[in-house]
């Protein structure tokens, strides 16, 4: 494993054992490929701070910004992949700057640790993806609203204990998920608030020996506030990730129930809803099968996100204050949770938009026994004790 390190790793200044280097890097470099634009944006903001402090000249600042923007462009073109031998995205980017700008490139790390560098990139990543999650939730809610309007007045049974219970409607059913999503948005907003704090300047968790204007990078990166205690910033590792995944977990719980309902209601035994053939799969042996695999994957994805939440929580328990390398292992869990949730939300919108409502089956299932409670209550309104009315009505349907 060859890597141009930017710091001495042993007392003699040699490179670490290759097996140790490969083990500690693991697959983290794959996650880091997704942080290129965020690390570059943070570095552009940091370069402005260095300019203000007189560490770099206007000419050097212009060169750094140009090079960092070039990296973003190269990455979008697939020409700036982070590889195992690069160690991580931060080393990859700094090596690029040093190679292209020499002494100027070596100045970029002034007043910065890789610790606060990682933190700011992750917070920018979370912010962007949480905003996307909000938009996807809004899209799904809009699709459900359209479904509710189109099916106004269409009856369907309401179930308790998996048995027909009371009268309901497609509108009520769809509306329940809309309201659930509105609650999920509260969790997303909270996660955004937690991530909305600039960690730059906290360095390795113990601040810097010189006073810097943290407001410069805070403003440049669009954060509403910056940290007060630098050690606290390092102790937020995992907490911010947990809050983000918890928010995603709320949305996935809503989708899990939506998928579970539709898996049941699309069976031949119910036949309340169906999806077009193009959104279903078939069987390798049974010619007649129409499988709703998309709903099963959506339903199962809750397990992935909840498992990641538990993994991050467990991995981060019992760690002392300050940075611990264990935190690196949370990155893949965080990113997978975003991937799974965002794809599930988009697919849920497509499912709802393409859902065929079988009105005849729905209304024929809304049979007389669904109105038993209403009948008993009407009797109670006329003076019959409710328990007496309950027993009289019960006899009709048993």
UniProtKB/TrEMBL annotation:
The organism's place on the tree of life at top rank: Archaea
GO cellular component: cytosol
One Pfam match: Lyase_1
Keyword vocabulary terms for this entry: Lyase
Protein name as catalogued: Argininosuccinate lyase
Signal sequence interval, chain numbering: none
Organism for this UniProt entry: Candidatus Iainarchaeum sp
Keyword set includes Lyase: yes
GO molecular function, one term: argininosuccinate lyase activity
